From TrEMBL:
GO CC terms in record: plasma membrane
AMP-dependent synthetase/ligase domain residues: 21-415
Organism of provenance: Amycolatopsis regifaucium
InterPro entries per UniProt: AMP-bd_C, AMP-bd_C_sf, AMP-dep_synth/lig_dom, ANL_N_sf, FAAL/FAAC
GO terms for biological process, alphabetical: Actinobacterium-type cell wall biogenesis; fatty acid biosynthetic process
Keywords for this protein: Fatty acid metabolism, Ligase, Lipid metabolism
Protein name: Acyl-CoA synthetase
Domain AMP-binding enzyme C-terminal: from-to ranges: 463-573
Length: 581
């Protein structure tokens, strides 16, 4: 794949502070960011900052931060315009921003403590309303009482330091993007201004977005890579308006997201697969009749495996609202590459059906019946190679291999993890790799295949189920298990491997909506049904099937199934003794 970047759109400056200054100078009175607050008003109270107002508030926070260049500043704000101000204020002060979340986010206190310990911030930016909770959380961490706490909505008056802030350079570190930790402990990806702005240009070009008339609309958490780049950095770099809402507001009423998209012509957004399913099943017919989804430019589907049946349902559900299938852009990406790696063209998503047995042996062969995968498009401004992870040899099209990425958007490594950085960001190709650089390559840990010119994602190497010498992709097994009963929560099934007597064995843990109502016989019958379906579809015998109440299958901070964590709970006996073995 060519790495040509000459046709990529130009961003407003070489660094994030330079982009903000540019738009404040040339478009100061234009809306920059709007936060729609559904917590204070069910209809959504809109609070807007113009580019000039955003610049003034960012400068106030930057001036009040007691930091030196290179210090880390953690952003522990609730989702709001204050988050945008705090993030940009930290970078404008010459510090390295660390986008996180306030301690009130349920179920993620352990991750927050681990990340704060890892990055050792000098200061934290939060809001006045959350300040007491943040100080209380910090007091429980080693050295936490020495961390300065600043409220983005009430910064102290006057400068906090006497030294000037040096002008940021493109190769300076802008922020640390901590990974979601789906297969390991969170690690901070080191991203420079150049990395981030290169990725913005790649994504805008690949998606065909017109910055002059576009508006980004996002409910995704700003601490997540896709939410941060879509909801904050892309509009900042391209001069687009950003419309934000809280993730909880989406969960409460998903139509709110679609209403905001309808409010703005040329709007574009991004969401994981579950949001497409959730919207298609939770938005009422009378609400759909009011939507103007013909105004949507594109919605990116990424961050988790894409289910073609979910896309079909979403497209059918919102067809009368003006939404067309070609507006859905399947994509693949990861934090180590800033976020976007491949995106689909402006046509309906392509779906291919692959023979499961052949795919398990490393070959993608189309079949009438098998595993359906959605094409995730092609790279823009970066190289993508499918590589044998053991030998480093580039594989031919049609062969399943590890996805390796090379481009200006790839981060420089993990924060203070030199060994892991070398292993992940410094891979080398071996053998014949004509037209591709030998080094350095990012090893993604993801399995994929190039078929008919596009990339299809098969799964994670660490999640792969290898039983009796055959490979099974967990999301495929999970989908089969979920089909056994309508009360098994979609996207809330985990399949993983444990050590068996002679080989690895597979286990299913599934959430059930009516778990408390199930009798022992009900559970036995449903477990048997899951076993039969998985055996018939995959030739896979399950060692164990465990049914649990809603909320018991762990997820990462970005909502992905945390299979390694689920396996840990299972082995620790947290789910009790299974009924069927």
């Amino acid at each position: 794949m060519s790495l040509a970047t000459e046709n990529l759109p130009a961003t407003a400056g070489p660094t994030l502070p330079a982009c903000l200054r540019h738009w404040a100078d040339v478009a100061g009175d234009r809306p920059a960011v709007t936060f729609t607050d559904f917590a204070v008003d069910r209809a959504g109270r809109r609070r807007t900052l113009t580019w000039r107002q955003l610049q003034e508030r960012v400068d106030a926070v930057a001036g009040a931060l007691p930091v030196r260049p290179g210090d880390r500043v953690a952003i522990l704000c609730p989702q709001s315009a204050d988050y945008v101000v705090g993030f940009l204020g930290a970078i404008t002060a010459g510090a390295i921003a660390v986008p996180l979340f306030d301690p009130g986010l349920p179920g993620h206190a352990g991750r927050l403590a681990a990340v704060l310990t890892d990055c050792s911030p000098t200061a934290v930016v939060t809001t006045a309303a959350a300040e007491d909770a943040v100080r209380g959380f910090l007091s429980g961490l080693p050295g936490g009482e020495r961390v300065a706490v600043l409220a983005a909505d009430q910064p102290a008056e006057g400068p906090a330091r006497a030294w000037p802030v040096p002008e940021a350079a493109p190769d300076d570190v802008a922020y640390l993007q901590y990974t979601s930790g789906s297969t390991r402990s969170p690690a901070g990806v080191v991203l420079t201004h150049a990395n981030v702005l290169a990725n913005v240009a790649q994504a805008v070009h690949g998606l065909g977005i017109d910055p002059a008339s576009g508006t980004t609309v996002s409910w995704l958490p700003l601490f997540h890579d896709m939410g941060l780049v879509l909801g904050l950095i892309t509009p900042l770099a391209m001069g687009m308006r950003s419309v934000l809402m809280d993730p909880l507001a989406f969960i409460e009423r998903p139509v709110r997201w679609l209403e905001l998209l309808s409010d703005h012509n040329g709007s574009w957004s991004a969401a994981p697969n579950f949001a497409f399913h959730y919207s298609a099943t939770r938005v009422r017919e009378e609400d759909r009749a009011r939507l103007r989804l013909d105004r949507v430019a594109a919605i990116v589907n990424g961050a988790e495996p894409i289910n073609p049946d979910v896309l079909d349902r979403f497209h059918a559900t919102f067809a009368d609202s003006g939404y067309r299938p070609e507006k859905t852009r399947p994509a693949y990406g990861l934090a180590e590459a800033t976020v976007f790696v491949t995106t689909g063209p402006g046509e309906p998503p392509r779906v291919a059906t692959f023979d499961r047995a052949a795919l398990g042996t490393g070959t993608a062969r189309q079949a009438d019946d098998g595993l359906k995968l959605v094409a995730c498009g092609v790279p823009v401004g970066q190289h993508v190679a499918l590589v044998d992870p053991e030998t480093g040899v580039v594989l031919e099209d049609g062969s399943v291999g590890e996805i390796w990425v090379h481009g200006p958007n790839v981060g420089t490594g993990y924060w203070q993890k030199p060994l892991e950085s070398t292993e992940t960001f410094g891979a080398r190709l071996t053998g014949d790799h004509e037209g591709l650089p030998e080094w350095p390559w990012l090893r993604t840990g993801d399995l994929g295949v190039r078929h008919d010119g596009e990339i299809y994602i098969a799964g994670r190497i660490k999640d792969l189920l290898i039983v009796d010498g055959r490979n099974h992709y967990p999301q495929d097994v999970e989908a089969t298990a979920a089909s056994a009963d309508r009360d098994i929560r979609p996207g809330s099934v985990a399949a993983f491997a444990v050590e068996g007597t002679d080989t690895e064995a597979a286990v299913i843990v599934a959430e059930h909506r009516r778990h408390t109502e199930l009798t022992t016989e009900d559970e036995r019958a449903l477990a048997a049904s899951i076993r039969r379906l998985v055996s018939d579809a995959h030739g896979l015998s399950l060692r164990d099937v465990v049914l649990v109440p809603a909320g018991r299958v762990p997820r990462t901070s970005s909502g992905k199934i945390a299979r390694a964590a689920c396996r840990g709970h299972y082995l620790a006996g947290d789910y009790g003794k299974a009924l069927v073995r």
